[in-house]
Amino acid sequence: MVEAMAALHAMAEPRHHPMHHDWLRTVRRRMTAPMRQETAGFRFGAAAFLAAVLVPAVGSTLGGSPLGFDAELELLRSHRDELGRQILRALAGVERTQGKDLHDPMVQAVILRDSARLGPVAFQLVQVGLADPGRLGDRLLDLLDDYWNRVGFRHQWAAVEPQLVEAATAASLAVNGTGTRGLLALLSERLASAATTCAGAAFDLPVPCTDESKPALLASAHLWPHACVVHGVPGTVCVIYPVAAGAAPPAQPDPLADLLPLLRGLDDSTRLRVLWLVREGPRSTQELAPLLGISQAAASKHLRLLAAAGLVESRREGAYVLYRLVPSSLERIFHGLNGLLTRPAGDTGSGPAPTPR
Question: Does the chain have fewer CB atoms within 10 Å around its N or its C terminus?
């Protein structure tokens, strides 16, 4: 359920989730206009949305068999009123409503006034929540149910679940080896660089804790590049952090790195004529300059650029420096371009280029 929420956040704010654009394009084709409006109304892109009521559902999976989606949905429906109140506070603004009685007419008046700027769908959801928090909770759960079944997030979950299980296993081993403090130390660089969201009071990262206090740690593929700290019941904290499944891939050598110097050496018509003139044998600057119709100084400049790119090489014979073509450089250009243009779409890896046919 948490991962479905994170995926909806990615859909609402696609520019912040470039790793998931392929999935998001599929999502948009499958979602109906009312579903898109409802998603926008819930403001999944807002800074504080993952409701704290999700923590009990998450906690029920720790140390036992994970719940399936339907079981999580049923569990959350049993908390529908509290879920609705958490959503209302997130929509209306956590700071302004924290600890306030949502039944107080004056508090409701402030919430309605401030919520008018959220747009008609979000404003209507706020009105629903003020009248009946449980109904607002059901609206969110109905949306998630449609997202799982109709839109097909269940297939996306099947794809990322093994990676999340692997991350959870690694986290468990880290906790066993160094304690919770040690694990959070390992995560601190990633968390500190991530945009922080929270449901509840503001929470600075990395998370201060002792080895005796065991916050729930959840890996997420779709929350990347964000991290989220969710406060549940007093003393309960859940840290949702990005994992490799959704994080930026490790830097790879640029497949163009070898090609660019060669191509830059060819980006001038005079230098192309130089290559044509030296293709059959070495020539000196003094010989090339009149053939090109330029001064010796200009010819020397072009030859230095070609030599720096590795397209020509020089040797001294008496008073003259002779330049000759480097045939292997032309082969590198051919093979490099052929390999680049025959790679599968989206593959920018550094593996060997395919052999040209």
Answer: C
The CATH code of the domain that includes 331 is 1.10.10.10
CA distance 291 to 284: 11
Pairing of the two strands 283-284 and 237-242: unpaired
> Could you read off the pLDDT tens digit of each residue along the chain, which spans 357 residues?
878 888 887 777 777 666 677 777 878 888 888 888 888 888 764 444 555 556 554 444 444 456 788 888 888 888 888 888 878 877 776 555 566 677 888 888 888 888 888 888 888 998 998 899 999 999 999 999 999 998 888 888 888 888 888 877 777 776 666 655 555 555 555 554 444 443 333 333 344 444 455 666 778 888 766 667 666 555 566 777 777 543 433 344 455 667 888 888 888 999 999 999 998 889 999 999 999 999 999 999 999 999 988 999 999 988 889 999 998 888 888 888 887 787 655 454 444 444 333
Question: How many other C-beta atoms are found inside a 10 Å radius of the C-beta of residue 43?
Answer: 20
| pTM value surpassing 0.70 | no
Provide the domain limits for residue 65. Answer: 2-242
Backbone angles phi, psi at 45, to 5 degrees: -85, 0
The residue behind tokens 């051919």 is: 334
Number of compact structural domains in the chain = 2
Q: Is residue 350 part of a domain?
A: no
Q: Is residue 316 part of a domain?
A: yes
